[in-house]
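#onboarding

Welcome to the new folks! Below is a worked example of what a typical request in this channel looks like: someone posts a single protein sequence, and someone else replies with the predicted structure as tokens. Don't worry about understanding the tokens yet, we'll cover that in week two.

Example request:
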Amino acid sequence: MPVSIDKTPRHDEATGWSGTAISYHRGEVDPAHYHLEGQLLFATRGVMLVDAADRQWVIPPQRALWLPPFMVHSYRVLSDTQLRAVYVSSSLIAECTNFSRNSQVHIISATPLMKELINGLFTGEYTAPIKRKMALLLLDILSETPSGGAELPMPRDARLFRAASKLVFNHRWNVALSELADIANMSERTFSRQFLRDTGFSFRTWKQRARIYASLDLLADNIPVKQIAYQLGFSCPAAFSAAFRSVMGTTPGEF
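Example response:
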């Protein structure tokens, strides 16, 4: 896949940071590219699937993703999304000596303070020097906030990806395995075997994770757990809560 570099000037070294606010519709794709700066991806609304460092990362409003400078990445939005991207120069990163994981792609839990700092950077309420201090404080917070896991490995095989995309991006949670196998031009047995080999998960387990990640956006919109459970094809709210805990390590309410 061709890779492009985003050379758009955003800030000088004295400023050290800049940001973009972008609205996406479900299914939109930003193809593979990289930036000269470090980047913090955060969605105030919506869920994104980011491909970086040979892994796929699910980014709901409860999470943010750190991308080091020059990291090739692409992303697809799983629902209507309001993205906030904060770009940080290498010199500003170097000033934050506590940020030991600055060269690694990783998920960060979006704490209330982190959200407030990001929101503050996108308002006109503060002067440029104050915003620079806010950007540095944001990096300090990234250095201390525990990482959170949120992976949904999409198949690399084009046939399997086509079938998996039909399920995830169209929210066809009750689609039969036989139909997905037909989309991939495979037998059900071959589809299941290849899916496990390609993603590291059985199709059943992967589908369960996909449904849980799809629920994150609904939870962020304060939709009742009961409604989410039935919308995603679970037999009852208790089944949804149990599946959520197995994937996310906490209940929907605690999350």
